[in-house]
């Protein structure tokens, strides 16, 4: 089930909120667990069994880790953590990467792994990371094992962030799972945040996404240099507003239910370096890899070659996490090279240069990275990049470019401004009574306009569902 659908808004969400606030507080996690399982079952049917299995494995292993720790059996605790990690990684590797590996091997003439045409369970990359971090945190002493299976199941299946994040660690949410506060003010702010996310997704991401789809569908012979750049700039806006919009909706839904989720984006396109960009983009994923991969590998408290190896592993994992395709691995390694250059000398140069230079540099390499990310077919990717950089004698522009610029310029300008904190700053400068009125009007108008778009439109993808 997708957030940006009338079925979710006017049936599932309305009914869930009604029952959630009618039942006594002690029964609210039961309501969330049942509704979250139904939410997932709506789109995946038999794969809901994976959710039950993952919940059972990590629930029992969390208690086993804590029991071993209390008895001073550190070896047993480490074995329990390792078993949990192996299970979660095996689950992810089988469903997400089996066919990718099998196909790659068969392309080299090795046929011992058959291609099974496995359907990728929605959100598996997100919820396996969440449950995997739970037993690790119990072992580290960062959280206590959850002994209530209903409460733990609620954490695993919580529908606002179940299928596309943000990645929530149990140590950040455990206390709220057990006990949380709700209020009219908190609910109202949740509605506001949700509608901001909805507008990002429906009004901006969907519209610029159609421009990218038009250019992506063109053959190399139909593309021009400026047209190829226009297409990938459209995707640059689409993926940001699609994913940050989903994250906002998840945060808003969480707040309606009394939860506080950490922010997942912080205006990444205003960054002045690639290093800063990754502090602002998909914050929950970057944090997860830093805490559960980079630091355990040794972080930067080691020799320089080992430190570089640690970063290489992290960025290779970051790339391949996004999808079972070689372009994602290349995308991750692309950022590894840029970050290495920055850490060795480029950041010093950028810090001395005017801010505008840093912005232009960052946006240039980020936009190029999205071309690598968006096109999985190597032949098409190679052709597209060649056109972007004017290789092969391609024309600079054509009549189609003028048509697309004229048609999409308003939404591209809106996207460019909305990618900055300008709107938020203007809103916060308003006096409180005026701000409340403006906010109420915008929320109602956003709901009406977004609903009209959803009822009338057919293009409504969520890019990160496939991850």
Number of domains: 2
Share of helix, binned: over 70%
Basic shape: globular
Structural class of the secondary structure composition? mainly alpha
Order of helices and strands: HHHHHHHHHHHHHHHHHH
Computed over alpha carbons, the radius of gyration is: 23 Å
Portion in beta strands: under 5%
In whole angstroms, how far apart are the ends? Answer: 16 Å
Which spans have pLDDT < 50 for at least 5 consecutive residues?
Answer: none
Mean pLDDT: 90
Strand element count: 0
Helix segment count? 18
Biggest β-sheet, characterized?
none
List keywords for this structure.
467 residues, mainly alpha, 73% helix, globular
Structural description of this entry:
The chain is mainly alpha-helical and 467 residues long. Helix content is 73%, strand content 0%. It has two domains: 6-180, no CATH class; 186-466, no CATH class. Helix 3 (48-70) packs parallel to helix 5.
Write the topology of this structure.
Elements: H1 6-22, H2 28-44, H3 48-70, H4 74-107, H5 124-140, H6 149-157, H7 170-178, H8 184-216, H9 225-256, H10 274-280, H11 283-297, H12 304-321, H13 326-352, H14 355-374, H15 378-388, H16 399-418, H17 422-429, H18 432-456
